[in-house]
Amino acid sequence: MSTSPIYWEVSHVSRAHSSVILAPNMSHPFLQDVQSSLSLHGLSLPHLLLLLSSIFAISYWAWLRLAQKKTSLPLPPGPAGLPLVGNLPFLNPELHTYFAALARTYGPVLKLQLGKKLGIVVTSPATAREVLKDNDVTFANRDVPIAGRTATYGGYDIVWTPYGPEWRMLRKVCVLKMLSNHTLDSVYELRRSEVRKVVGYFRSQAGSPVNVGELMFLTVLNVITSMLWGGTLQGEERERVGADFRQVVSDMTELLAKPNISDFYPSLARFDLQGIERQMKGLVKRFDGIFEKMIQQRLKMEREGGSGCQDFLQFLLKLKDEEDAKTPLTMTGLKALLMDMVVGGTDTSSNTVEFAMAEIMNKPSVLRSIQNELEIVVGKDNIVEESHIPRLPYLHAVMKESLRLHPALPLLVPHCPSATCTVGGYTVPKGSRVFVNVWAIHRDPSIWSDPLEFNPERFLHDEGDYSGNDFNYFPFGSGRRICAGIAMAERMVLYSLATFLHSFDWKLPEGEKMDIREQFGIVLKKKKSLVAIPSPRFSDPRLYE
């Protein structure tokens, strides 16, 4: 039996709950002595017990927090910032190279405080795999900038829509219906017609400088708009719309790349201090007017007995009218998809062709290898067709190598974790803006030999593809958010390169040197447009019709 003094007594028994409530036994001599002592200081024993209980509870809570902090992983390392603004004042406009330099100091996962937003930069195959594959669902959402949301009717497109039923519907429409191999095969004549037009123009300008990037942009734009609503625009009207689109797309991609105070300080968003939202609304309005015109033309043609055309706009309008769809396509979603096709498909493909042409011209041995392969497969008395492309392995290697050095989206599209998770041994908080620096991974000397050298041969003996399964090489991204337009881009780039290099020799204007410097943006661009002189390789004029 215990000999300890009994300081507590039963004060109440609840019959309903059979519970016993204990209270201090105030008749015990020890407690009476304590109470007398406390009274001298104006305190009572119940007050003391309450104070001690509070101290114990607070101490226990603090201990739990400390224990939890010790067991949870820290945030990634990163450069010190300033109060309120963090690292914003120190950002270099060339973000892909700036982030790569920081990674050499702070490692493959680092953090940047961007105002109120936490930025996480991932710069290794292992950590990219954790983001894009191991935690694919968690990172399947986007950190949508105000410029992106404004550009796509509130973020209702395939790029910015949150992961879920609506996104899966849009993805299915794009990949299985609009951009499938079957559909792309069916509109080959549209691509062929546009590429042959630019070949004719190059021949008419033989011996004179031409802006390759500008002409390639217009060619890709015409292909895409022909696929979207072919047959509704002809002649001068079509050229005018094409020129208008080019300027609008250029302005939109520039706004998307600008750091926006409204993104980093949400409480200031309503003021639109830099005017980015206002400017983007103006550009979208110009696009919307064109979209509305095309839609109304198509609906009118349908009411009058059918247009006879089979294009993407016709397909989307029919899909929109399906009443039994589980996730219906709205008119807003339809326009947002048109925006994706026009903006997302033009700059990326035309810039890839421009970079590839510049790298090829800068290395005559590569140009000779391409032309030798083309002469064997296509012949000197024939024009290139898409059916020749699968038999041109060296040309495929050239495209892969160009995308290794100059990925179209150097930081991909920023991801945003839907829950706090771990990457590379560090905590990545929910809601962070996560950049995957594919540009830096593609130039990592621990992965690639002579990483800055343009060497297509490295892909002749490598099975590297665009599937996103190899995290040493994933120019189109990986996981659920991998680019939906890979098949379209591959066909457009390879067919254009094959045609231009088979039909012409190319050189720079007298006294010019090749400049392959890059300009950062959401889409990577050549800092200085490629201006080159075409010279016909064949005497038969039919090969240039």
TrEMBL record:
Keyword list, A-Z: Heme, Iron, Metal-binding, Monooxygenase, Oxidoreductase
Source domain of life: Eukaryota
Cofactor: heme
Organism for this UniProt entry: Eucalyptus globulus
Pfam families per record: p450
GO molecular function, one term: monooxygenase activity
Keyword Cytoplasm recorded: no
Gene3D superfamilies to which the protein is assigned, alphabetical: Cytochrome P450 (1.10.630.10)
Family: Belongs to the cytochrome P450 family.
Name of the molecule in the record: Flavonoid 3'-monooxygenase-like
Annotated positions binding heme: 483
